From TrEMBL:
Gene Ontology biological process terms from the UniProt entry: 'de novo' L-methionine biosynthetic process; diaminopimelate biosynthetic process; isoleucine biosynthetic process; lysine biosynthetic process via diaminopimelate; threonine biosynthetic process
Transmembrane segments: none
The organism of origin for this protein: Ureibacillus thermosphaericus
SMART domains in the cross-refs: Semialdhyde_dh
InterPro entries according to UniProt: Asp-semialdehyde_DH_CS (IPR000319), Asp_semialdehyde_DH (IPR012080), Asp_semialdehyde_DH_beta (IPR005986), NAD(P)-bd_dom_sf (IPR036291), Semialdehyde_DH_NAD-bd (IPR000534), Semialdhyde_DH_dimer_dom (IPR012280)
Keywords for the protein's UniProt record, in alphabetical order: Amino-acid biosynthesis, Diaminopimelate biosynthesis, Lysine biosynthesis, Methionine biosynthesis, NADP, Oxidoreductase, Threonine biosynthesis
Pathway membership, UniProt: Amino-acid biosynthesis; L-threonine biosynthesis; L-threonine from L-aspartate: step 2/5; Amino-acid biosynthesis; L-methionine biosynthesis via de novo pathway; L-homoserine from L-aspartate: step 2/3; Amino-acid biosynthesis; L-lysine biosynthesis via DAP pathway; (S)-tetrahydrodipicolinate from L-aspartate: step 2/4
Name used for this protein in its record: Aspartate-semialdehyde dehydrogenase
Assembly notes: Homodimer.
Function, in words: Catalyzes the NADPH-dependent formation of L-aspartate-semialdehyde (L-ASA) by the reductive dephosphorylation of L-aspartyl-4-phosphate.
Length: 343
């Protein structure tokens, strides 16, 4: 079966990767539409050796579309996803807008593929940091149970889009006067204050909520519980932006229900879907974002048993946030739906 696909936000950091993934994975495409803002309409975009005209994302643009992949910001999804569904498309939305809606499945195929069956036209792709964490933790949870997660993230600028990548590139030139760097985009474009990301780390991703956690941190907390179907799981997150172009890293502390050894965790993660173990201390082998860029899997290393809690473990988890954290997971959702006759 061949499908008509639309990419909304086709010129963006994630949209560009969606385009690449569709080709790389040989997604069965009949026709494809590249949608963006009015400012990009009319510009040309290359796909599989052919040139396509970018169109403005309007309700009418979804006429005849089977699958619409959205990554143009929450307000665009809020407005246009229902319009696409009205015209018969299935929407796979990479923004946070619909994620916690009880009528919208929030899916990482390795973890909760079954939830796709309950869709009403819109499927949400989870937050990038959440995706890589649940891929690593689901196999452990299945064997040992899971009671608590405490995670600190080291997130790349690509998660904030093209303008943040450009900001890091530009600021990185200012070695001598780095305290005077002018910042415009990070930590959050709409915020009052901006701070340099080059030569710095920013303990704020997205805006603050009433409880002192940021929205990004609350996404990790709430989305993890929804995806894993563990409403009582205790999760805490501290999300930090670091001067890395692409690839999110996470220090993850977990408490499982059954006592286990580090070897047990190795055995569980070896060959687990979507996971690659990189953990060999004698040879200084551990995952790093510079080397996971462009790769599909979620890499896990530095696995240690906590020194005090018999059921506590520490892990280091790294993945390409634009791929498994966004574009790849979206395409995998579409592939799973095709296989399960949901498209
Ligand atoms: P455009 O390039 O025309 O502004 P990123 O996350 O890298 O910043 O990319 C955001 C993507 O969302 C871009 O493709 C951008 O298109 C698109 N976009 C932004 N605002 C709108 C809008 N109002 N309608 C449709 N697409 C939009």
């Amino acid at each position: 079966k061949l499908l008509t696909v639309a990419i909304v936000g086709a010129t963006g950091a994630v949209g560009t990767k969606m385009k690449e993934q569709l080709l790389k994975r040989n997604f069965p495409i009949k026709d494809i539409k590249f949608l963006a803002s009015a400012k990009s309409a009319g510009k040309e975009i290359e796909f599989g050796g052919k040139m396509y005209k970018i169109e403005e994302a309007t309700p009418e643009a979804f006429e005849g579309v089977d699958v619409a992949l959205f990554s143009a910001g929450g307000s665009v999804s809020a407005k246009l996803a229902p319009e696409a569904v009205k015209r018969g498309a299935v929407v796979i939305d990479n923004t946070s807008h619909f994620r916690m809606d009880p009528d919208v499945p929030l899916v990482v195929p390795e973890v909760n593929r079954e939830d796709l069956k309950k869709h009403n036209g819109i499927i949400a792709n989870p937050n990038c940091s959440t995706i890589q964490m649940v891929v690593a933790l689901q196999p452990i949870r299945q064997k040992l149970g899971l009671k608590r997660i405490i995670v600190s993230t080291y997130q790349a600028v690509s998660g904030s889009g093209m303008s943040a990548i450009e900001e890091l590139r530009e600021q990185s030139k200012y070695w001598d006067d780095r305290k005077d760097i002018e910042a415009k985009v990070l930590p959050v474009k709409s915020e009052t204050k901006h701070y340099p990301i080059a030569y710095n780390v920013l303990p704020q991703i997205d805006v603050f909520t009433e409880n002192g956690f940021t929205k990004e941190e609350m996404k990790m907390i709430n989305e993890t519980k929804k995806i894993m179907h563990l409403p009582n799981l205790h999760v805490a997150a501290t999300c930090v932006r670091v001067p890395v172009v692409n690839g999110h890293s996470e220090s993850v502390y977990i408490e499982v229900e059954k006592e286990a050894s580090v070897q047990d965790i190795y055995n569980i993660l070896k060959g687990a879907p979507g996971v690659v173990l990189q953990d060999d201390l004698n040879n200084q082998v551990y995952p790093m974002p510079l080397y996971t860029e462009g790769e599909d899997p979620v890499y896990v290393g530095r696995i240690r048993k906590d020194l005090y809690h018999p059921n506590g473990f520490h892990l280091w988890v790294v993945a390409d946030n634009l791929l498994k954290g966004a574009a790849l997971n979206s395409i995998q959702i579409a592939e799973a739906m095709l296989e399960d006759n949901l498209l």
